[in-house]
Every structure is written in C-alpha cells, then in structure tokens.
Amino acid sequence: MRILLYNPDNGVTRNFMPHLWMFLLKALTPPGHEVLLIDGNAQPMDEHQIAQYVREQNIGLVGIGAMTRMIAKAYRIADAIRATGVPVVMGGPHVTELADEALGRDGGPRHADAVALGEADETWPQIVNDAVAGQLKEKYAPIDDMGKERKPSLKRYPVIPWDSIDLDQFNLVPKSAAALLRKVGEGWGTFRIVPVESGRGCPYGCEFCTVTGFFGDSIRFRTNESVVNELLLLKARARKEKGQIAVFFIDDNFAINVKRTKSLLRDIIAAKAQVHWVAQISANLLRDEELVDLIAASGGKWIFIGMESIDPANLKDVNKGFNKPGEYASVLERLARRNVYAITSFIFGMDNDTSGVAERTLAQVRTWPPGLPIFGLLTPLPATPLYKRLETSGRLTRPKHWQEFIPFAMAHTPLKITIEQAHAEVKYGWEQAYSPEALAQAVDSLNDQPLGYRINIFLARLCFRGIYFPMMGKVAWLKVVAQNRHTIFELAKEAFLGDRTQVTAVGTESISS
Ligand code: B12
Ligand code: SF4
Predict the structure, then answer these.
(1) Which of 82, 159, 191, 496 has fewest C-beta within 10 Å?
(2) Ligand 2 centroid – CA 408 distance (Å)
(3) CA separation for the pair 421, 404 (Å, rounded)
C-alpha cells in the first residue's frame, strides 16, 4: 500500500524544520509499504491539490498530524481526502485531547476515519495492518494487557535513515544559490535543521502546557548510543552532499535529568558527533557550570528558554514558580561566556499583566546578552489545566478558538488589561525587539567578538522577525534589507576590508569536521 503522511502548514514558518512524527512513523511502518511525506510548510497544497495528489499517486491511507493551531486546516484537508474515498487517520496532541471532534461525535462533522491517541509508536503498525485489511477501528490507544495506558519506552528507538531519506523539501538554501554555495568552505549547498529527540516527558506541569498531560510525567530517554549514532548519520549526510546540518533536540526539557544530559553530551564529544544544536532547557537547570561547559563543547549554540514573564506573580499563577526572573540575567551571561545564546520566550496576557508589560520586559531584555526574544499570548489549549480554570470561571471568549484560528489573538479575557491591550503589547514587543535600531544594538553588543558572531546574531534576528512579520515574498525581504541597510553595510565593510580571518563563528564555522 502507498501511505501518505501529511502535516498541514502553519502559515508562518515555511520549511524551517520538518516534523519528527512523520519520519518516526515512516521508520516504524511494517515492511512492504511505500510511505510518502508531505509537509505543507515546505510544499503548500490546498484541498483540491491534495485530493488530486492522493488520486494520482494511488494512495491507500493518509495519516495527518497537527497541533491545535493547524487543526482547522488539517480537517479541511482530511475532508477533501475522504471525499476521494481514501481513509484518513489523524494523530497528535489536538485529536488526542478532542478525539470526538475529529470523529464527528460531538455534534459536528466527521473528519477522520480513525484517531491515534497519544504516542503512536506502538499503535502505528497495527493501524497500517488494519487499513490494509479494510478494518480500521475508530480509536487506537497505547494500552497494556490490563487495559491501562502505556507510554512507549524509547530504549529500542528505530533508526531513522537520515542518510537516504528524501529531504529535498527541507533545504533552507535557495535553489538558485545552492550550486555556488556548495563550493564555499566545507560546503553550503544544503542547510537543514533536523529534529532529533533524546527523551520525552516533563514533570513540571505548567498550567498552559499540554506536555505533562500528553507525554506523562514519567520521563523516558533513548540510549546515548542511539542518539550519537543518529548524529553521526546526519553528519555523514551533510558531508556527502557538501552541505550543513543543525539539530533541534526537540525534548521538552533537554536537561530535565542533568546527570543523564551530561553523560549524553560527553558521549557526543567522545564520538566526535558534534553538530550545531538547539535545545529547550528551563532556566533553573542552567545554573550548573559544568552542564553549560558541556553544552558549548558538544555543539550547543542556541538554548530556547521559556521565560514566560518577568513577574513572579504571573509565574506562580501558571504553576511555573520554578522560573526565577531574578536569575535570568546570570543564566544568559553564563551561556554567553561560552558563546551560546538564548531564544527567550515571553507570554503576555497573563493575569497579573498591566499596561506597559511589553516595555518593562524589553527594558530587561536590553540589559541581557543579545538573543532572540519571542512574544506570544497566553492560549488555553484543550485539556490543559489553564483551559479548565478559565472555562470554570466563565472567562473563555472563544471556547473553540481553533475552529477559526486567528494568529496572535486571545481566546479569553485577562484580569488587568483588555484583550485589545494584550494584542497591542505583543505587537509592541515584536516591533521594538526587531526594529532596525534593536538589530543594530544586538550586533554592536558583540563588538568584542569575531565578525561571524555578529553576522550570526543579525541573520538569526532577521529570520526570527519573520515569525511575527511574515517575509514570504521577495518584496518583503527587500524592504527589510533596506530598513537594515546601515547594519548590513557595516558588517559587509568589515568582512571585505577588515580582518577576514575572524569570520569563524556560530553560523559560519564548519559543523562537518
Ligand atoms: C519541536 C516543537 C515545535 C517546533 C516546530 C515544530 C516542528 N517542526 O517540529 C517549534 C519550536 C517551531 C514549535 C513552535 C510552536 N509550538 Co511546538 N512543540 C514542539 C515540541 C517540543 C516537539 C514536537 C515533536 O516533534 N515531538 C516528538 C514527536 C515524536 O511527538 P509528536 O509530534 O506528538 O508525535 C507523536 C504522537 O503525537 C503521534 N502523532 C503525531 N502526529 C501523528 C499523525 C498520525 C497520522 C499518527 C497516527 C500519529 C501521530 O505519534 C507520534 C509518535 O508517538 C512539542 C512538544 C512535544 N514534546 O511534542 C511542542 C508542541 C507540539 N508545540 C506546541 C505549541 C503550542 C507551539 C506553538 C504554538 C507555541 C507558540 N505559542 O508559539 C508554536 C507554533 C509554531 C507554528 N508556527 O506553528 C504545543 C502544541 C499543543 C497543541 N495542543 O497544539 C506542544 C505540544 C508543546 C506544548 N507546550 O504544549 N514547536
Ligand atoms: S517546563 Fe516546559 S515542557 Fe515542562 S511543563 Fe513547563 S512549559 Fe511544559
């Protein structure tokens, strides 16, 4: 049977990184089937196009995975596919929480023939076999012999054949420049950011987060050996195609067990499996100097930190009191001393936020080493404790906000500001943090560093700017380049007239050596 795994586009980040679930399920598919992958972020398709594709390619089963924010699009695509007579199975966090919605058992239309609840590592082969036999069940759940929910172990993790898998849709180097860039240094003909997981689960239970409910508070890890081998495979591929690969360790909290993380990083270093990597780590775990040393030595370049708020009262409200705003600066400086920088994520519209929260946050951000601040709104995702609290207190203004998804729009009323004020705070945060002046300041703050670091922070900021100000077309890019022409000119002048030997940094040094 030919199986299509499809992930709908999120409308923002294009082909920046593929979704791991597709590669994982492909690797777990029983032999004898052909599995095709389409990520809508890299290959946008509308309902008509996908239906045509399914017919032309003679697809016998389609699997669709989606987060809450893409679920409306996922349902539209699923409807179009089902209209061709091909069965659709859906999985991922949203349909796990709201299976009845996908199956049309909540009074709405049906979108899926079957739903995979929770982690599908063990149920996927069964789903495929049942589809072949024409006997798809409505729900598949990972349960043990006693009928109790079972979280799959990651000890026997499948080998994802990164050396041979078709990754054409995920090359971040434009086709027009690939041939030329292949000859630069170790080769830049391709640049891919690849998701790798080393473990699952986070016990912290922040009120707005689905992770503790979905993956459970029992944390599971792959073996160090299996992670190291995966990195070696990725490095070999990059070398073979004269390109570069960076890894996003998508674990929810990569250092949740500091001892294990240190042992993994030591093994990566010992096996010379270093690639440039990004990971999510909560601030409280970054107090450990040895851990941060190992992060830097093993290729860690960017750490995503869910700071959420600089107000301890807000953090306490959402059960994230383990975040201590008083130590944010020292954590970031500890990283920056090793040339590791942070993606700092903030949420506005929290219950203790008052007017001016964005400027107060930015005032602190400006005193920190340069990084990539990002701003969002508190969002009640289905089945989170936050959703339940707001529902119980009658504060949800759009209880099914995902059915008509609007980016950067609240679905409940904060306590001390209006919804409109919260929207304005997010807008202000993005505008100020990514203004030409802010970009120039970030570059200047690294004046004592090699040029490569400054180019890197500038390019990273330009790309991150696109999360809020989508830069999909050439005109939009040209406008941004024009606005930042002064900084670009200064960097270019230094590159061509200055000490060129210094151009060795985060984005430019070789990762394939
Ligand atoms: C990596 C990641 C991202 C990446 C992008 C995604 C990517 N390209 O990989 C980045 C950092 C950009 C990101 C951004 C956001 N993310 Co995110 N992200 C994750 C993260 C950490 C890992 C995803 C992952 O690969 N997991 C590992 C795989 C193996 O698990 P999985 O995807 O769940 O798949 C398993 C099952 O769900 C199932 N399955 C999944 N799909 C399918 C499909 C079929 C057919 C079947 C049978 C089974 C199946 O089988 C898989 C194997 O067991 C998750 C948390 C987590 N641990 O999952 C959050 C998570 C998915 N993100 C979340 C959110 C909210 C966001 C943001 C909206 C945050 C924000 N406020 O801006 C943005 C939105 C981005 C956008 N523009 O759309 C939420 C989603 C909750 C929800 N109900 O939708 C999660 C769960 C985290 C959380 N805090 O709750 N994210
Ligand atoms: S620390 Fe991060 S992953 Fe863990 S529960 Fe909180 S927000 Fe979710």
Answers:
(1) 496
(2) 21
(3) 21
Spatial contact of 57 and 25, defined as CB atoms under 8 Å apart: no
Encoded tokens for 331: 């954590």
Give the bridge partners for 7, in sequence order. 39
For 440-477, write each residue's pLDDT tens digit.
Answer: 999 999 999 889 889 999 999 998 888 888 766 788 88
pTM of the model: 0.94
Given a contact cutoff of 8 angstroms between Cβ atoms, the answer to whether 473 and 437 are in contact is no
How remote is the CA of residue 318 from the centroid of ligand 1, in Å? Answer: 20
- Name the residue at shortest CA distance from atom 1 of ligand 2: 204
Higher pLDDT: 511 or 217? It is 217
Hey, whose CA ends up nearest to atom 2 of ligand 2? 252
**Residue 74, both tokens:** 């996922």
Six-digit token pair at 432? 């100020």
Tokens of 158: 């499948």
Q: Are 225 and 216 contacting, i.e. CB atoms less than 8 angstroms apart?
A: no
65 lines ligand 1 (CB under 6 A): yes
Q: How much is the pLDDT for 471?
A: 67
Nearest ligand to the CA of 69 is: 1
Q: Is 308 in the pocket of ligand 2 (CB under 6 A)?
A: no
Eight-state DSSP code of residue 412: B
| Cβ-contact 455, 507 below 8 angstroms | yes
In the chain, pLDDT over 70 holds for what percent of residues?
A: 96
Contacts of 355-361 with C-beta under 8 Å, sequence gap 24+, read 355/417, 355/421, 355/425, 357/311, 357/417, 357/425, 358/425, 358/426, 358/428, 358/429, 358/432, 359/428, 359/432, 360/310, 361/309, 361/310, 361/429
Q: Choose among 475, 471, 477: nearest CA to 14.
A: 471
Q: What local confidence, expressed as pLDDT, does residue 58 receive?
A: 98
**Listed range (22-26, 81-85, 163-167) with the worst mean pLDDT:** 163-167
- Report DSSP letters for 218-269, one per residue: S-EE--HHHHHHHHHHHHHHHHHTT-EEEEEE--TTTTSSHHHHHHHHHHHH
Closest residue CA from atom 48 of ligand 1: 91
pLDDT band with cut points at 50, 70 and 90 for residue 418:
very high
Query: For ligand 2, is residue 279 a contact (CB within 6 Å)?
Result: no
Structure tokens at 87: 């069965």
Tell me the C-alpha distance between 365 and 369, whole Å. Answer: 8
* Position in ligand 2 atom list of the atom nearest CA 204: 5
Burial of 340 (0-12, 13-18, 19+ CB in 10 A): buried
Ligand closest to CA 281:
2
- From atom 8 of ligand 2, which residue's Cα is the shortest distance away? 209
